[in-house]
Amino acid sequence: MEIAQRLRGLREILELTPEQMAAYTDCTVQEYLAYESGESDFGFTFLYECAKVFGIDLVELLTGEKPKLSHYTVVRAGKGLPIRRRAGFTYEHLAYRIKDKLSEPFLVTAPYSPEEQNAPIAMSRHKGQEFDYIIRGSLKVQLKNKVEVLSEGDSIFYDSGDPHGMIATGGSDCVFLAVVMKDPGAEE
Question: How many Cα atoms are found within 13 Å in the side-chain-facing hemisphere of 45?
């Protein structure tokens, strides 16, 4: 609810309409209003795009606090900024205290679900690039119409502006490092 309140407050301060925000975040006006009212869970892509529109760090949108460090930060095991996403996916932001980041590093846990193994993979997209490195388990990644299965020690680098999605496969949860790199042209 706090994130939803920040969304509405920032939108109003910047004098943006729900229609404009829906267009910026690639959703319908009804979907946007459901996010802003706290009726729907946020996806990473939605929050990432909102932070860009508002001209703030993603962490500020999530926590209400501006990152302050500029030199370095240490995040101890299990102490990243927790972010919940779709159906049990968990994210730990690993650089949430650093300001003016060029990338957003996350430790991600994708839950294994037998039901998802033969179903279409939910796709998303956001401007920039992404690098994913598999730490434990296996990850099925769909990029447009291509599917890759990655195992421990494998990595993938891709244009995240193209549709992409992923699920844990192989019978267990998958833990991976995801580094989302901003679109350098987005700042212009």
Answer: 21
Q: Write out the two tokens for 56.
A: 């703030």
Distance CA 50, CA 153 (A): 33
The CATH code that applies to domain 2-63 is 1.10.260.40
Could you please report the per-residue DSSP string of 38-102? TSSPPPHHHHHHHHHHHTS-HHHHHHS----BSS-----TT-SEEEE-GGG-EEEES-TTBSS-S
Radius of gyration for the chain, computed over Cα atoms and rounded to the nearest angstrom: 17
Cα(73)–Cα(187) distance, integer angstroms: 24
Q: Please determine, looking at this structure, whether the domain spanning 81-187 carries the CATH number 3.30.720.200.
A: no
d(CA 155, CA 144): 18
pLDDT tens readout for residues 115-134: 999 999 988 888 889 999 99
